[in-house]
């Protein structure tokens, strides 16, 4: 007989504060990322992970054989804004616990949601090339952060996220989309930075700054690497004039074409935590 899941307990956990140490905040400030253990329980990851996985395969439209895909397409299945597709997924995305950690690390009074995205690297899936996320975002301030949540323990063979420490301050490569070119150029340019490419334990998550360069290896295991992410921005973030076609698309899709110079405060970008 299957055990009954008490979803009330899970919802409470998602909204219970997490104590972010001064050391973790200082580490994030200096290195541009931080990995935190025991942020989410196995029960949370199992329950919401199953729902997220069902949505990914229901909504996924990338069905080409792996050998016919581009480097970007081989990196992962990418499904965005699950919170608008399912009320239970919304509970996970709107977690005050996860948003509070983001605010603490960025040292801001509150955060808005930019958007969420599931990133599922299939077995035989390729590398995720070096890139900085904020290349895609028409946001004026560097006060942006992504939480990367593996829905299972993620050993090296599954392709965990890797970080070029302190690279959030480097200017080179900020005009590169995720591509073979970004992988080649940044592999050479980032040799001066220490690389953190360790595995993730179950319940361990990472937060990284919008301009921090990061990548992931291929998934050479026989199981999909299932990851959920949320991108947060300072609640007082301002929209800037898009600088490339990707930023124009993001401005229209994720920011509801909010006026340049304004705070993006439409229903698409709710405040998820405020002090």
TrEMBL record:
Pfam families reported in the protein's UniProt record: PhyH
Cofactor(s) required for function per UniProt: Fe(2+)
InterPro entries cross-referenced by the UniProt entry: Phytyl_CoA_dOase-like
GO molecular function: 2-oxoglutarate-dependent dioxygenase activity; iron ion binding
Keywords from the UniProt entry: Dioxygenase, Oxidoreductase
Highest taxon listed in the record's lineage: Bacteria
Protein name: Phytanoyl-CoA dioxygenase
Originating species: Runella rosea
High-level lineage: Bacteria, Pseudomonadati, Bacteroidota, Cytophagia, Cytophagales
């Amino acid at each position: 007989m299957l055990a009954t899941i008490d979803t009330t307990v899970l919802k409470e956990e998602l909204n219970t504060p997490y104590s972010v140490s001064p050391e973790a905040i200082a580490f994030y400030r200096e290195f541009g990322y931080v990995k935190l253990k025991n942020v989410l329980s196995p029960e949370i990851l199992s329950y919401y992970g199953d729902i997220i996985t069902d949505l990914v395969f229901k909504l996924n439209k990338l069905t080409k054989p792996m050998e016919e895909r581009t480097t970007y397409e081989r990196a992962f299945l990418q499904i965005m804004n699950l919170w608008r597709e399912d009320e239970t997924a919304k509970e996970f995305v709107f977690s005050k616990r996860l948003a509070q950690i983001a605010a603490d690390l960025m040292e801001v009074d509150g955060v808005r949601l930019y958007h969420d995205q599931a990133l599922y690297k299939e077995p035989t899936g390729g590398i995720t090339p070096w890139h900085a996320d904020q290349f895609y975002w028409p946001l004026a301030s560097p006060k942006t952060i992504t939480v990367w949540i593996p829905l299972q323990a993620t050993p090296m063979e599954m392709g965990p996220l890797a970080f070029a420490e302190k690279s959030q301050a480097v200017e080179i490569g900020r005009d590169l989309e995720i591509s073979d070119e970004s992988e080649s150029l940044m592999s050479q340019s980032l040799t001066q930075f220490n690389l953190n490419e360790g595995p993730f334990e179950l319940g361990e998550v990472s937060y990284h700054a919008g301009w921090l360069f990061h990548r992931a290896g291929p998934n050479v295991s026989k199981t999909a690497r299932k990851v959920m992410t949320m991108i947060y921005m300072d609640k007082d973030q301002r929209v800037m004039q898009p600088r490339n076609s990707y930023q124009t698309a993001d401005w229209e899709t994720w920011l509801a074409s909010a006026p340049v110079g304004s705070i993006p405060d439409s229903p698409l970008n709710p405040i998820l935590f405020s002090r």
